[in-house]
Specification:
The protein is built from 15 helices and twelve strands. It has helices spanning about 10-20, 20-40, 60-70, 80-95, 100-110, 170-180, 200-220, 220-255, 265-300, 310-315, 315-335, 345-360, 360-390, 395-430, 450-475, and strands at about 5-10, 45-55, 115, 125-130, 140-145, 145-150, 155, 160-165, 180-185, 190-195, 435-440, 480-485. The chain is elongated and about 130 Å long.
Length: about 500
């Protein structure tokens, strides 16, 4: 039986043939060097800067507290325990990249302007302000120091320069394409911007974080902040009235020469009068707050969270369902605005649905206000009767009894107001979660891409490798010396 002889390739011969084609390797290196030079000369430089934020959406949520204590084990929680936080964080990331926030950054840093000569400088060092009257395609223009009139509008320049102009919507799109917002782990979020100059590369992430936190402070925390201010002012007024009533009682006791209690009937009437007056004050305060709610509904600026100040209203299951629908529609609209403009049909439909649901609050609030007016009328009638009875008592005894009852009422109200102020202060601090900047973006000292040395080395190495592969394939396709051994 005869076995096929093994084939042995003479590698020395192959190497010799490759050396004869060294020109291909050399040409590959030259082409790589030319490519590197082209990249360095013609590719616009890029500067990357990153800021890091902490976004905790619900610091007072029991599930959030449990997850924070569990650490890495929280990732193993079922979806019904951990999914809400993920959805809330996704919503916050969408709001952080919304066109409303990006548009404010564009307006503040003049990002509609791209400097070309001189380049690598912030647009705000060239342009002081600008005003465009219509949309237009990106256009290259030369600016002179001072006011520059162009077909699209007017630009006020600080110095002479060649720039490329975008309209505001295109500038927002261009900014969105250069920003990367991602969750790095837990509640930490990174904001990276690829800028054309080092100063703007750091300014954009920092300003984006500041605008986002400011919007959260003025929108999400506004209700509790206003409630805190109202309660603080009311508490100061109660303390002032308490001191005045205590001084009157002390003066009356000193004038009588003893601290004897007034007549029992006068004290009972005064106690009841004070209780009804306290109830009347609460109804008036509630009526004022309800008027503001009705005004907000009529002007279509209602926030379902405003109803938290009306516990009687919240007892209605129908109202709770209505508030939940409004909150859901508003959340869907906010998430949609992260990817669609406000003029899109979907966004307009959600806005109309929200306004329609909010309008249904008006009949409920109006009926509740009418009920409060009827209560005030009834209490006012009872107060008139009590005051008439007190007027028939000895003036001194009635005055002392009334002031003592007032002191008791104001002391109880002062203690209750103190607890409410503390609760409102804690709510104002905790509402909206914990959002702050951990690491501010710093202006990079070097270009991120292209870096000359790295680009040259990589391009030449790639060209040499390509030339070697071509030479090797050419050598392999040429007949080589093969030695065969035959055996039996």
């Amino acid at each position: 039986m005869t076995e096929p002889a093994p084939i042995v390739i003479d590698l020395n011969d192959v190497a010799t043939r490759v050396r004869r084609r060294a020109l291909a390797v050399l040409v590959g290196g030259v082409i790589g060097a030319i490519a590197a030079a082209g990249i360095i000369i013609f590719v616009p430089p890029r500067f990357d800067a990153t800021a890091m934020m902490l976004i905790r959406t619900s610091t007072n949520d029991p599930m959030s507290m449990v997850k924070d204590r569990m650490g890495a084990l929280s990732e193993l929680l079922p979806g019904n325990l951990g999914g809400a936080d993920e959805e809330e964080l996704a919503t916050e990331l969408a709001l952080l990249q919304s066109r409303a926030v990006l548009g404010t950054v564009v307006d503040s840093l003049r990002l509609e302007v791209v400097p070309r000569s001189p380049d690598r400088i912030p647009p705000s060092t060239i342009v002081d302000s600008l005003r465009f009257t219509e949309r237009f395609k990106p256009e290259k223009v030369s600016l002179a120091a001072g006011a520059n009139s162009i077909p699209q509008g007017k630009v006020w320049a600080k110095q002479k320069a060649d720039v490329k102009l975008f309209d505001r919507e295109d500038a927002i799109d261009e900014l969105a394409s250069r920003i990367v917002v991602r969750k790095t782990g837990g509640n930490a979020v990174e904001i990276t911007y690829r800028g054309r100059d080092s100063i703007t590369a750091a300014e954009v992430p920092n300003l984006l974080a500041d605008i986002y936190m400011l919007r959260r402070k003025t929108v999400d925390r506004g209700l509790n902040q206003r409630r805190l201010e109202f309660l603080s002012a009311k508490a100061d007024s109660v303390r002032s009235d308490l001191r005045r009533s205590a001084d009157v009682v002390a003066a009356a006791a000193q004038a009588n020469g003893s601290g004897a209690s007034p007549d029992i009937a006068a004290k009972a009437l005064a106690d009841e009068t004070g209780m009804l007056e306290a109830k009347m004050s609460e109804l008036r305060a509630g009526e004022g707050a309800l008027d503001s709610l009705i005004g907000a509904v009529q002007t279509k600026h209602v926030d379902p969270r405003n109803l938290a100040g009306f516990p009687d209203l919240l007892r209605s299951p129908a109202l709770n369902d209505l508030i939940a629908e409004i909150a859901k529609v508003e959340t869907d609209r906010t998430t949609l605005l992260a990817t669609r403009p406000e003029t899109s049909p979907q966004a307009i439909a959600l806005a109309h649905a929200r306004d329609s649901l909010a309008a249904q609050l008006l009949p409920i609030a109006t009926a509740y206000r009418q009920s409060m007016v009827r209560q005030q009328t009834s209490i006012e009638h009872d107060l008139d009767g009590l005051r008439a009875q007190l007027s028939r008592l000895p003036k001194a005894a009635a005055a002392v009894a009334k002031e003592q009852a007032e002191v008791t009422r104001l002391a109880a109200m002062n203690a209750g107001m103190g607890a409410q102020v503390l609760t409102a202060r804690l709510a104002a601090l905790a509402e909206g979660g914990d959002v702050r900047v951990i690491d501010a973006a710093v202006a990079p000292r070097r270009v991120t891409f292209p870096r000359p040395l790295t680009t040259i080395v990589v391009c030449i190495a790639a060209g040499i490798a390509a030339g070697f592969i071509i030479a090797l394939l050419g050598a392999a396709s040429t007949p080589a010396v093969v030695t065969t051994y035959r055996g039996v």
